[in-house]
């Protein structure tokens, strides 16, 4: 266990606390070989948490991930997500089995409710716990749930929830006001999705200049900042070997106080409560 590793409530360590996202991957046959090589290079570099979803490319991302991890399943901490309309007792088992089939595995390490829909949270908890008992998933969590939803989940016996995957990066700091403190006080880590704002952060002029002054790529600086926050697991998506190598390098970066202060000036922390943002 490293000082930066993040523990899930059930005690399992996510090490290192930096994963690989896969949204928009697996959809373009001409990019497939490079995407698979990228995910495998990420595994070589220790980025063993891979995040996907049944929604991504209508299953194409899961299929591509399945191919990338073939023969390496034991190295991987595999996360997938279910559509809200599938998060019922009647539909979740089949949705999960379909994901497992596409991924070429017999179990998920973490299965998330992608966002909240019409199925009562308590029913999703029951369905998730059953999948866990049946060995289809090792654990479960949620995504895009705001503080009041998390309160409701707790009240619905959702104490088995291992994470909440939310939009979090320098330009989206609203979660720092109450959601992250709420989760932290209960030992629930956050998976930070779109950690480089889908690439948009990289062209922010002053941010890019700061990164250059530190001899870091903007992506590496954005990830290093997130990695300093306790209980946060960024999951950047990289579509090339060069990008995943750049991202993995963020694990070795330590920011100084001056840089942190400057980043707070460029991207101020929240001063009041705002609704959770989603992409
Ligand atoms: N739960 C949810 O609702 C939800 C929502 C959104 C995302 N997610 C998850 O979070 C993951 C990450 O979020 P995201 O894909 O939206 O955005 P992101 O990771 O913030 O950004 C991805 C973009 O950044 C580029 N990039 C990555 N590394 C780079 C580097 N080192 N240098 C330059 N550019 C780089 C990528 O380009 P290349 O492709 O060219 O490398 C891509 O265009 C997703 O893939 C998905 O798994 C979850």
TrEMBL record:
InterPro entries referenced in this protein's UniProt entry, alphabetically: AKR, NAD(P)_OxRdtase_dom_sf, NADP_OxRdtase_dom
GO MF terms held by the record: oxidoreductase activity
Pfam annotation, one family: Aldo_ket_red
Domain NADP-dependent oxidoreductase: from-to ranges: 17-264
Source superkingdom: Bacteria
Descriptive protein name: Aldo/keto reductase
Organism: Haematobacter massiliensis
Native organism taxonomy: Bacteria, Pseudomonadati, Pseudomonadota, Alphaproteobacteria, Rhodobacterales
């Amino acid at each position: 266990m490293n000082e930066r590793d993040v523990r899930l409530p059930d005690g399992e360590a996510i090490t290192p606390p930096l994963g690989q996202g896969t949204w928009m991957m697996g959809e373009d046959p001409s990019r497939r070989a490079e995407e698979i090589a990228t995910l495998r290079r990420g595994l070589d570099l220790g980025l063993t948490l891979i995040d996907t979803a049944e929604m991504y490319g209508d299953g194409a991302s899961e299929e591509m991930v399945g191919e990338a991890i073939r023969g390496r399943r034991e190295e991987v901490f595999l996360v997938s997500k279910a559509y809200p309309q599938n998060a019922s007792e009647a539909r979740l088992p089949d949705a999960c089995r379909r994901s497992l089939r596409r991924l070429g595995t017999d179990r998920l390490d973490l299965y998330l409710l992608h966002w909240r829909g019409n199925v009562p949270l308590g029913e999703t908890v029951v369905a998730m716990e059953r999948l866990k008992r049946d060995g289809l998933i090792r654990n479960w969590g949620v995504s895009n749930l705001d503080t009041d939803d998390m309160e409701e989940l707790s009240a619905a016996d959702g104490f088995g929830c291992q994470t909440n995957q939310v939009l979090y990066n320098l330009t989206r700091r609203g979660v720092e006001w109450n959601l992250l403190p709420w989760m932290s006080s209960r030992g629930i880590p956050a998976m930070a999705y779109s950690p480089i704002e889908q690439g948009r952060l990289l062209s922010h002029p002053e941010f890019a200049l700061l990164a250059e002054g530190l001899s870091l790529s903007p992506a590496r600086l954005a990830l290093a900042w997130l990695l300093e926050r306790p209980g946060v697991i960024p999951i950047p998506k990289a579509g090339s070997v060069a990008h995943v190598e750049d991202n993995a390098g963020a694990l070795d970066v330590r920011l100084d106080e001056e840089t942190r202060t400057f980043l707070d000036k460029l991207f101020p922390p929240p001063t009041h409560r705002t609704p959770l943002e989603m992409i």
